[in-house]
User: Fold these one by one.
Assistant:
Number 1:
Amino acid sequence: MSYIVVIPARYASTRLPGKPLADIAGKPMIQHVYERACESHASRVVIATDDERIESACQAFGAEVVMTSAGHASGTDRLEEVARKLQFQSRDRVVNVQGDEPLIPPQLIDQVAANLEAYPDAAIATLSEAITDPTTLFNPNVVKVVCDARGMAHYFSRAPIPWGRDEWQQGMPSVESIVLPTSTRYFRHIGIYGYRVSLLQSFVEWPAAPTEVTESLEQLRALYNGALIHVEEACVTPAGGVDTQEDLDRLRASFERQGESYD
């Protein structure tokens, strides 16, 4: 199984500017992500950035770096530019690992790539995990996904799907009063993607889909245009990314408690 990891790393984060360079246990965060990706079975790991400061930091620890446009509307657009610049073939598989996931388990990277191999009709592969509490289900920052019997995604949403019609007949309940139906399972989408390069080439030509604009979820553009997205439960639970200063502070404290065990 041969595939390539691309790690997009932007400096201009709205909530935490410069976070790829944030120090964690003596290394920039992007280096931790890169090292986790190198523990996977990927044949190549590339960092894609639009900032020279990130480029210099990555070169200092020996990573392959590609400079990309600062004007991309989505991470998928940035991946397509990398694939084009590095002349990836249409049949190649690329796994997008977020640059703010310093504890990403390498097993998840391999799992996504393997699922693209196992499901040749899928253009994209991604992961999910079960939701067991109502607070998570009703949180609009948590993306939910519904799939068919083969694991192909029907829809992604910030809303609680599927909706418990009989349980929640009075409309939107208060979270405190919610009891999750036992007749179905709910799943949170985990934002790691495997793509066929042919899909990337098509994706950048498609206009934004109405559902994508409404939900602010770019994977809905692929579904809108008929691409199949395979979703499987993650083989291990990911630690989560770094979006805010509070996330960064917790991660630093965790590294201090664990010492060198993350390396």
Number 2:
Amino acid sequence: MARAQTRPTSRDVAQAAGVSQAAVSLVMGDKWRGRVSESTAQRVREAAHTLGYRPNLAARNLRLGHTRTVLLVVPALTTEFFAGVYTGAARVAAQHGFGVVLYPSPEGIGPARN
């Protein structure tokens, strides 16, 4: 049964490519060499591209035990200074494969209690 407008999953890619989910995982994780043939890897990549598949980063992060996310605590979101701090932090984080979550401190300016 077709799903109604949901993101394609690795199961969908596996079915479209005629391979197992394990093969999809190996190819999409770039760990296929020596385990999956070049033609199979190409078939998986083509199926993923055709379906618009993107790996679920939240699921991957849970499996790996880390998120590659930085928490930036700022005292206020209304000043141009902290907007610049966030923009710079997000740019540098992205260059290193990290994301930034912004959290306005409820205690405002000054050292945090914890």
Number 3:
Amino acid sequence: MHATQYDITLPADYDMRIIRERVATRGHLLDDFPGLGLKAYLMRERADGSPVNQYAPFYLWATAAGMNDFLWGPGFQGIVSDFGRPVVQHWTVLAYDEGPAAACPPRAATRRRGPVPERLSPAEAMERVLERHAVEAKADGVVARAVAVDPRHWELLTFTLWADEGAAEPNADRFQVLHLSAPGRSGIAPGRQW
């Protein structure tokens, strides 16, 4: 499974109602997209205390074919046409789990990124990450949680969907969830992805 995200940072005075309207009118278009596990339409804004105004959709791809169909098809072209071509960050998913609030619609998301510790072997580092993930995925309010790694930059990513709008996580970027497209969510195998 693959995780992707692109951050579109917008001017400080950008009218974020434009992003809300975009998601309200277009978000449903991926509700049945083949190969997509889930897409969280994320936004954060300075008015809520964020350092930036940002639109930052996050994807969990059940298949590489689905990811490629999106990136090279009309879906991503809409982003390119409206905002320019963003850098698409890419990680391989290590684990995914539904949380105690899995039946609730997500209202917030957190993203934590950091380096894989150099003092540990990659295998040992991943085992420690998976142990922590297993505990954190069971926290109250967690809808779903994924942990992934970019082996090019040795960056770890933790992504959590929360049922509570006020959810917080130390050292994490916090986003509003405007919509969740989840055509393949029920088919994502829980736990370790290898």
